[in-house]
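TODO from last week: model Endonuclease VII domain-containing protein.
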Amino acid sequence: MSGEGVKRCSRCKQHRPRAAFASNRAMKDGLQAYCRECSAVYYRQRQEARGKKPRPRVTAPEGHKYCQRCGEIKPHFEWDRNKTASDGLSTACKACRAIAGRAHHLKRNYGLTEAERDAMIASQMGLCVICLKAPAVHVDHCHKTGRVRGVLCFNCNSAIGKLGDDPDAVRRAAAYLEGIAWKPTLVAPGVYQLPS
């Protein structure tokens, strides 16, 4: 070290201000041996040697950040906040996080990949299998077994859910719509006979 506010980088051998070094409490002076630039180069070399692809270094204008997932530079308002990050922003933009969140939801809740869901929709010709009118967008599953049954429109999916996933209730609803009166008959106090 050749001065109070200066330190020599042990990699590039240049004297740099102390602010050019990251902190390291294990070191005698409390700073890393390599300056930040040399540390970044060294990190990239180590990652490449391990067969990993290090993230590209992209400079963005003030108030903007580069998204690693979509490869676009976006303004800060298109990012979620992250207090633990050095810049206070998440590692991916809001749009990319939403896409990843939907994929994670499909896998976690239904055990499906997006490709498997898209194949199901294609096998249904893109339509809800109940109403045959609206686009199929909601994965439907049995709440008892967890088995995926198909992809429905919002209205049909919520309708069978509100009928409690009960095939008998759906049959009674269909009979009612067809004009068949479905009324239980009182045969004794508190005892009703259901129509067949």
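Done. The first strand starts at residue 6 and ends at 8.
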